[in-house]
Amino acid sequence: MTTTITLAQLDELSGTWTIDPSHTQIGFTARHAMVTKVRGAFNEFEGTVVVDAGDFSKSIATLTIQATSIDTRNEQRDGHLRSNDFLAMDEFPEITFVSTRVTRTSDTSLELTGDLTIKGTTNSVTIPFDFEGTATDPFGNLRAGFEGSVVINRKDYGVTWNAALETGGVLVSDKITLEFEVSAIKNA
């Protein structure tokens, strides 16, 4: 089923939006021991999106993630991920994304290109997003939903620790999938 966004719906997107951390999931997936996937999330972050629905190229998005909030549901693993082997969060407490270009690719999708900084290293990434729609919540807030994901190579950000397996391969994959399920509230 294809959903077409009407002009009225598009117009209501214009404005400044604040990401709602209690209804947003910023997660990641990595291969572990070459045979399974480990999923995790960041629990503390903030972000804003300024949308110009008339000219999406003028839209801007920013996101700041607290690296200490990494959560894989295993305290020992989380401690290792916070260490210098991985995120070096004492020296680099934040992961940031600042958009450099927004491109509308269809009625219900867009690409967000920007600078992703992890562990002090910045690279450009393009994240495809699907627009899931808008709704007014019981408190009168206009909400918009977006979902997207992108695969990055952690070594491109100086995250290089690994361990060889006896059976061949390595303990942690180089490729990491970043996953975004965003609920944003339009500012008054």
From TrEMBL:
Residues 16-185 form the Lipid/polyisoprenoid-binding YceI-like domain. Gene3D superfamilies: Lipid/polyisoprenoid-binding, YceI-like. It holds the Pfam family YceI. InterPro entries: Lipid/polyisoprenoid-bd_YceI (IPR007372), TTHA0802/YceI-like_sf (IPR036761). Belongs to the UPF0312 family. PANTHER family: PROTEIN YCEI. This is Polyisoprenoid-binding protein. It comes from Tessaracoccus antarcticus.
